[in-house]
Amino acid sequence: MKVSSLLACIAAAAPAAGFAPSLTSSPLAARSSPSADGLPSLQPDGASSAGCTLVAPAPSLSRRTRLYMGWGPDPIWSPAAIESNIVACPSGSCVSLRVNVADGSEFIYPGQYVQVKPAGDDSVNPIFLAIASAPTGEAPKPAPKGKKGSEADAAAGPEPSSPAPATWEFLIKKTDNNAWITDAAPGSTVAMSQVMGGGFPIEENLEGFKYDFPTQNVLLFAGGSGIAPIRSAIESGQLNVGGGRTCTLYYGVSTPDDMPYVSKFPEWEERGVQVVPVVSRPDVPCESGAMWGGRTGYVQNALEEDGVPIPRNSGALMCGVKGMCEGVKSMLMDSGVFEGRVLTNF
User: Fold this and answer.
1) What are the CA-CA distances from residue 257 to residues 69, 165, 170, 284 (Å)?
2) Tell me: the pLDDT tens digits for 128-180?
3) CA distance 26 to 285
4) CA 73, CA 87: separation in Å to the nearest integer?
5) Mean pLDDT, the chain, whole residue set
6) Rounded to an integer, what distance in angstroms lies between the CA atom of residue 48 and that of residue 54?
7) How far is CA 183 from CA 172, 178, 193, 215, 280, in A?
8) Which residues, 6+ apart, have CB-to-CB distance to 75 below 8 Å?
9) Contact at 8 Å (CB) between 118 and 191?
10) What are the pLDDT digits (tens) for 33-87?
11) Among the listed residues 17, 37, 30, the one whose alpha carbon sits nearest the alpha carbon of residue 258
12) What's the predicted TM-score (pTM) here?
């Protein structure tokens, strides 16, 4: 069933909750009711939708300082300005931030992330945030076959020579200890690391014939704020949907009011992505007055019900809680999907 046939009256019900996405139709029908619980947490408190765990406190901030975290590269801190901060879903359980950065050229793959901490506050640990918007940098060109060394480097073209300012978006679930960023006012400044991680290895594993069979079917799985890097993948164009390649997104949340990016679903479907929202607690009253008429349970249940078409020609991207990712991966591999084509961003 298409998303447009599921979404009914969120535009009419949501203003009472202070939220009004730009849809003229949505999967929900109105009723009056008390507020709902928040989104399921994707990480422990103090972590974020990048899927990483914090292991060390942050030192004092200078314009560009380093912090050793015990794994991965040391963060190099730079100031970043909050452009806007809006409620991302009717329940108010998460916010969408637009942040201006001095150089966006390092963000080249969906699923990459940054560390963020308050400017000048030693008492708060950094959090990890996957960038939700499409990449703003360009991937390096592969060396032509048969060329090595300086000849290949010359053929690939010059490295970026100057910073390219950019605006990135982040989706952040509210927790008891991250009000410093979820309540950040436009114009305020935070400290942000360089871009980290390799993101989803899409080109390496979904393109070409590495696994003997071309990827004709892409499956996307997200839970709660884990939709952030999946949105980046959809809007990046790097999934190469169309021309014989299909794509389906399974997106799970607790209640209809906990669902960000509803207004983007029609845009994603125009890009060729079939959107399958799944609500695990459809009977919980919603403050917006919404009623759910779509799929229920968890994304694993929806996948089990639908099955995996052409598994040996399928690949998947996922971001969410450990149980969801493990369950989905097991089902995909049992159906015949190559393990190397089940991708995460960390």
Assistant:
1) 36, 34, 19, 10
2) 999 999 999 998 876 665 555 555 555 555 465 578 999 999 999 999 999 99
3) 17
4) 32
5) 82
6) 9
7) 11, 8, 20, 42, 28
8) 66, 67, 69, 115, 126, 193, 194, 196
9) yes
10) 332 233 333 333 334 455 433 333 333 333 333 333 345 689 999 999 999 999 9
11) 37
12) 0.79
Structure tokens at 329: 């991966």
